[in-house]
Amino acid sequence: MVDLSTKIHELELKNPVCTASGTFGYGEEFADFFDPGLLGSIFIKGLTLKNRAGNPYPRMSETASGMLNAVGLQNKGIDHFIENIYPRIKEFDTHIIANVNGSTVEEYVELTERINELDHIPAIELNISCPNVKEGGMAFGVSCPSAVAVTEAVREVYDKTLIVKLSPNVTDIAEMALAVEGAGADSISLVNTFLGMAIDAETRKPLLSTITGGLSGPSIKPIALRMVWQVYKAVNIPVFGMGGIMNATDAIEFLLAGSSAVQVGTACFIDPQIPIKIIQGIEDYMERHGVKEVRELVGGLID
Amino acid sequence: MKRIEDLTVKNLRWLNTNSYVLELSGSEATRDIRPGNFAEIRIDNHPDVFLRRPFSYLDYNKDEKTVSFFVKAIGKGTHKLGTLKKGETVNIIHPLGNSFSIPENKKVLITGGGSGIAPFIMLGRELKEKGNEIHILTGGRTSEDILFTDEFRKYGEVFCTTEDGSLGEKGLLTQHSIFSGKAFDYDLIYTCGPDGMMKAVASIAKERSIDCEASLENLMACGFGVCLCCIQETTEGNKCVCTEGPVFNINELKW
Ligand SMILES: Cc1cc2nc3c(=O)[nH]c(=O)nc-3n(C[C@H](O)[C@H](O)[C@H](O)COP(=O)(O)OP(=O)(O)OC[C@H]3O[C@@H](n4cnc5c(N)ncnc54)[C@H](O)[C@@H]3O)c2cc1C
Ligand SMILES: Cc1cc2nc3c(=O)[nH]c(=O)nc-3n(C[C@H](O)[C@H](O)[C@H](O)COP(=O)(O)O)c2cc1C
Ligand code: FES
Fold this sequence. Notes:
The structure holds two protein chains of two kinds.
Chain A: E1 6-8, E2 11-13, E3 17-19, E4 41-43, E5 60-63, E6 66-69, H1 78-89, E7 95-100, H2 105-116, E8 123-127, H3 144-157, E9 161-165, H4 173-182, E10 187-190, E11 194-197, E12 199-200, E13 205-206, E14 212-216, H5 221-234, E15 239-241, H6 248-256, E16 261-264, H7 267-270, H8 274-289
Parallel strand pairs in A: 3-4, 3-16, 4-7, 7-8, 8-9, 9-10, 10-15, 15-16
Antiparallel strand pairs in A: 1-2, 5-6, 6-14, 11-14, 12-13
Helix pairs in contact in A: 2-3, 3-4, 4-5, 6-8
Chain B: E1 3-16, E2 19-25, E3 38-41, E4 53-56, E5 59-61, E6 66-72, H1 76-81, E7 89-96, E8 107-113, H2 120-129, E9 133-140, H3 149-153, E10 157-162, E11 169-170, E12 188-192, H4 195-207, E13 211-215, E14 231-234, E15 237-240, E16 247-249
Parallel strand pairs in B: 8-9, 8-12, 9-10, 10-11, 12-13
Antiparallel strand pairs in B: 1-2, 1-7, 2-6, 3-4, 3-7, 5-6, 13-16, 14-15
């Protein structure tokens, strides 16, 4: 038996395989496919204080080895979540982690305070990297001073595990990571989607209502992997790595590059059982390589 | 319950130059299938097809554990799917979405264009079982596009239009004389096909205050309610076509 458990700050994960925000709903949508309680943790769909309708249709365009999305954080707001969704998912046998969004520092703080009251949510992922909203979102995550300001303000009111999700749409990802570490983050997750665009040559029209959107899937994996490795070398806090993970080998590469745990995103649309197959695949790999604890793999790149 | 299944190609039959019926066997999900439901099919071995593709069921057979789809080859995925050989494996997630309502002892009109006729064989059968009087109107560019007529005749009276006049009345589906006739006294109209056609049918239904259900084909990434890419604007805000649809009452739509 190999030991798959890992630790992010105070958070004990039974295995390093989590699902990424916005690609796994609230977890319950996958109950027909497998027991979500088997996951290391579930990052639920991005939350905002108020109901958000999101962007107009079309919001999706398939690309070679990936997809662009322009969902724009559609969700019914924190009150609806607490009343209707939280009671249904709080008994999952794994950690539920909230993805926190705002258009001002005050909104991030207020939403964090609301989530802080929920006993079954032991951590938040501060999303300062959504490319699909006009105000806030990625704007906070592409400049160090604003990333620091929002992280510090949330840290003030939140004692549980604080994960900050970085945008890859920056020139120096290590600098951003260092800045949020300094501002009090317990962990960093990366990457969110890459800003991209698609055009229909026949009609000369954009394929997304917002013209630009966020690219995810295997096409971003090499860049995501490089960024995780740069961040791992720069900071002393644990990292959740993601970006185009489609199978166990991809996940292991992220662990070797320095992720303490990984998040599986877009792959869940194509194979909803992929997170479970990845857990199994990591176990097989460890047995094959005589690795007893998954933690030994973290940053295990031989360079 | 939604299932992920590896099914076997029992048959793939091209009906004309651009469409085929794909029949798959080995499904344990047939008892859950309702008219209007759809499946997400994974298309393997094509470098540019990343996501699954959604298709309404054409039919199913509980005893033989088969499901079938009517597919129009319009792009890379649907062409690739059309090259499958008997005995090959296909991965599908199903059944998904909601279904058409089935009244009893009413007079109904079914309107289908292009691949939009797919869900209407199952619907026609169920409507007939419930004692409804059924008229079925299909439209296409040429007589080649008018398919499943014999099957539809088992359930009701069949009409058609072709743009070139090679079969039935010449013109667009909504130009058919059925719409101007005195006997236009349906209790419910069903529509599935290109957006323009569905909107035209919906506007006639609205004008005459007849209930109408449309089955939408929005672009989808997941098909089971998690990506929020397939949304349709409704009077109650954005709804997911894959879970709260694909069938909508037109009064709900902002058409
Ligand atoms: C609920 C549902 C049920 C469906 N049922 C059927 C069915 O029974 N039979 C059938 O033949 N088709 C059906 N479709 C449509 C089918 O899913 C698309 O034709 C298919 O995904 C196209 O894939 P492709 O790779 O061949 O096209 P691509 O190469 O991806 O695209 C080719 C062109 O078609 C357009 N296109 C792709 N998908 C759609 C779509 N969903 N709506 C409008 N335009 C699109 C693209 O924008 C592009 O211009 C259904 C769709 C939905 C959502
Ligand atoms: C449809 C869709 C919706 C997403 N919604 C969110 C979100 O609400 N919050 C967030 O932090 N990231 C969101 N993401 C980004 C993913 O969590 C992830 O960072 C990104 O997709 C890269 O991983 P992947 O390539 O494995 O999908 C979304 C991604 C997709 C494809
Ligand atoms: S296609 Fe993903 S939510 Fe409908």
